[in-house]
Automatic annotation (TrEMBL):
Keyword Membrane attributed: yes
Protein name (database record): LPS export ABC transporter permease LptG
Keywords from the UniProt entry: Cell membrane, Membrane, Transmembrane, Transmembrane helix
Membrane spanning stretches: 12-30, 66-84, 96-119, 265-289, 295-312, 324-347
The keyword Transcription belongs to this UniProt entry's keyword annotation: no
Principal cellular location given in the protein's record: membrane
Gene Ontology terms: biological process: lipopolysaccharide transport
Topology with respect to the bilayer: Multi-pass membrane protein
Native source organism of the sequence: Devosia insulae DS-56
InterPro entries given in the database record: LptG/LptF_permease
Amino acid sequence: MNRIDWIIVRRLASNVGLTLVVLFGIVLLVESLNTTRFAALSATGGAPLALTAVALAAARWIIDTLPLTFLVGTVAGLLNLQATREMTVIKASGRSVWRVMIVPLAVTLAGGVLVTLLVDTAVIQFNRTLSPSSTTSGEVGRSGTLWLDEQQGDVHYILEAGYVNPSGTALGSVNVFLMEAPRDRIEAATAELVGNEWVMAQATRYRSNEMPEAMTDFRLPTARTAGDMRARIASIKDMTVWELAGSLAARLTDSRERAETETRFLRLLALPLTLCGSLVIAFAFTAGYRRTNKYGGAVLYGIVLGVLVYVVTEMAGRAGGAGVMHPVIAVAGPAVVAIVIGVTVLLNREDGRT
């Protein structure tokens, strides 16, 4: 990285950072308007806990809208370079826009990887520490109780567990309601997922008009895997990239859960590529030479295109999560299209061909 590259990266980074700070402040203000949640958290752990929770919620918003925010910040940085004629001097030195864009692309790629692997993970972990109940979904209620309704062959039962291990393979305070006659009820202190069975080392069977019967090594068949359980006890959006990878590696049998998990996992992995698409679009619409400093139309086109790409990305992500579209196409498609559009515009404006 030479001095010119350093100037460009520093100018773009400062404007992107300023944009993120401004948006973070706005989202922070919006989140603080939820007075009910703020009061509940303040009663639990005081004002510091409530403020931290609000800040973490705002951080999640920033990460979710990062491609669009990054586009706006990059456009502002390039306009700054144009207004001071620094971009004109850089091009006059013999550097093409392609050469100018190489180092910012590399920095953007590295920053996207950092956000995916570290920043997003840290925000989720802190949010989980402050409000564990907010990360539960599916069959897990606010109280932490798990309900499973399953039928395997002739065995139909509803399982209730008062405690669920984060791995999803160990349960505590278990009650099993057998739905077939004579409708027995099974109580057990613990249950573990071993292979395709829930294994209860010590259990008690309750049957109408009969004395309770103690049992050992009681087993119930199940089609759920460790990956299924991990996906069901936590909200997909509140799982880190490492946990998503673990769920996929644990063989998800539920097609809906697998589609949601795979789409979320690939979206995190594709974040660097999406940010690169935003950078290319910003360069395509604002890095060109102008005799005057009137860039209103170019900026408007760039931001509108960025918003369009963001909306398409969200819609494709929902389609991938619902299983309507293959997750790889749903995630990589919008990012690749954004890069292709940006490169096409640059070729037309800089090299005079498409």
